[in-house]
Amino acid sequence: MDDKPVTERIVEQPTVTVVERKGNGGIILAILFVGLAVAGGYFLVVEKSNDTRQTDAVVDAAKSIGGAAESVGETADTVGEATRDTVEDQKK
Length: 92
Hints:
Layout: H1 24-91
């Protein structure tokens, strides 16, 4: 047999540990949710403002129509009085 000395060699390899962190997805979703909520609130406020303007326009139009109706009513009263005076004058 071979009388050569036996040499042992021990090689230790470092262990690699991989740590996955998945917490950032929640933060991104929260930021997106807050952004959508702010945008939605803005559009609701703008829409309410537009509704208020439309309501004011309708109220102003109704006031104009009311003023015109009042004018027509006064004219009808005047015509009625004139007609009554004419009829009374003719009876005399």
